[in-house]
Amino acid sequence: MAMWGTRILSAFLAFTLGVYSTGIVRYVVAAADKVGTVYAAGKSQMLPLLKLNVEGHQSSDDAADVMQPHPVSLSPYEIKRILENDELSPCQRGEYSGFVDFGPIWEKLQLKISDTIDPFPERCSSPATANIYSLELDGNSGKETLLRLDFGEPYASLYLVFKYRNRQQNRGWNILGSLAYYYGAPFIPPSHRVVSEGRHRWLAVEYQTGHGSAFGSGAEDWYEVGESSVIRVLTYPTGVYWGMSDPTIGSDTKVLKIEDRNGVVTAFLQSWTSYGYYESFDDKFVRLWTNQRKATYIKGPGMQEFIFDSLYSEMAEEEFDSPNDQDPISNKNFLKYNYRELAKIATKGNRKQKDWLRDFLAHRDDSLERQSLQSALKGSRP
To answer: With bands split at pLDDT 50, 70 and 90, how would you rate the model's confidence at 94?
Structure first.
């Protein structure tokens, strides 16, 4: 128990103080929804109807935006039937034929959605499909019902979490929370699954966080579902690909296992990252190095979310969870984080690898790592 107390303390201090593939890698998630479970040995703020200000990213801490779980008069099955039959008549005439008037739906669910604020339509502006999943999320009697709405334009997915009340004089549907995700080109929607270590369960949603020319990145959110809340307790990057950087970077991250020891839940993640470059004269790819390291997150009793455990991780939190909209090579700590692999190239690499390193260091800011690597290159055989 003392060991886990030390781990929580170190993680709190760290928190408060501060693979490669030439094709599309795993973080560009599959188009089909998936519901799987990861098994291993072994109250809080309400979730708002999330407003999106960056693709795939969610933000809203305004108390006025927090959605309290509440009973609703419209069931998820009724919503699906409405969408499949296009029953809401205002959209069946003229240029809006085939679209749905979502206004009455949002009103009956008591969701405040605006065309100008959220990427979800209000009146006759988008087609939509609905899928329903029956999932055990809170560990209590009776499964939760997950309604997923996918909108054709704008390209967005809205998850609504429902629970049916089956008490003798209080029967009906409650809506517990809403999870909003927007995605642009290449128009790949998020996917979801259930993650568990046997005792606890989380709804995990994987989604793209960025894309562009020879660039793509993704992340996964874990949500804890209860009768009074749906809260996000963990977000981690699932992968990134930088094809235009020097060196190129391709990374992929997966959950190895989850453990619960004395009430402390630990999620062990494995990250694979490969570096290389393309020879300009024939576009031949030259592999430089690959590393494989673990990242650890913990959540103890009374903690609202998982936090990064720097003591039991093989990388720094900044290194693992670096911003997706910046070239990671520009990070001033890149040489420090990858010094061991770069030193191997300097002393034991082949001619192409050493030539690359020599040119790479020539364009870096001066540092002790840069000086040491340049000295190693001068002292090694050509």
So the answer is: very low
The reported pTM is: 0.79
CA distance 56 to 186: 13
Say what percent of the chain tops pLDDT 70. 70
Confirm if 127 and 154 have CB atoms less than 8 A apart.
Answer: no
Rounded average pLDDT over 16-28: 35
Tokens of 168: 């003798």
Residue 75 tokens read as: 């069931």
Higher pLDDT, 371 or 105: 371
- Which of left, alpha, beta for 311 (phi over 0: left; psi -120 to 50: alpha)? alpha
pLDDT of residue 375: 95
